[in-house]
UniProtKB/TrEMBL annotation:
Protein name: EF-hand domain-containing protein
Stored PROSITE patterns: EF_HAND_1, EF_HAND_2
Domain EF-hand: 55-90
Single GO molecular function: calcium ion binding
Gene3D superfamilies cross-referenced by the UniProt entry: EF-hand
SUPFAM superfamilies cross-referenced by the UniProt entry: EF-hand (SSF47473)
Key word Cell membrane present: no
Organism: Solimonas marina
């Protein structure tokens, strides 16, 4: 069960990229659409409203560098799990070991500010 939670948490790291790609021109009328729009803006560095291969590649390289804590060019299972559990803990604002939609949204918005 914990492994599936880790896999789910790992997928959170890709959510902004996937959501932005799936909805290139979202209506900001729902929280999910607003999150997708923010994800697009985070990756769309030239501001043209689309994610190019170069922008996606840059986002992936940035994520890889973050996960490769010892900078040896590979992401070990320990590095991956440590990074994802830290993200989970940061999002779990009430510390109950579970993430609500509101906690995920709050964490995503906080990350967008950086």
């Amino acid at each position: 069960m914990k492994r599936w939670m880790i896999v789910g948490a790992a997928a959170l790291g890709l959510c902004p990229l996937l959501a932005a790609h799936a909805q290139p021109q979202p209506q900001a009328s729902t929280p999910d659409a607003a999150s997708a729009a923010m994800g697009l803006k985070a990756i769309d560095t030239d501001g043209n409203g689309a994610i190019s291969r170069a922008e996606a590649s840059a986002a992936l390289h940035q994520q890889f560098a973050h996960l490769d804590a010892n900078h040896d060019g590979v992401i070990s299972e320990d590095e991956f799990v440590t990074a994802r559990l830290a993200q989970f803990d940061a999002a779990d604002t009430d510390g109950n070991g579970e993430l609500t939609r509101a906690e995920l949204r709050q964490r995503f918005l906080a990350l967008r500010k950086h």
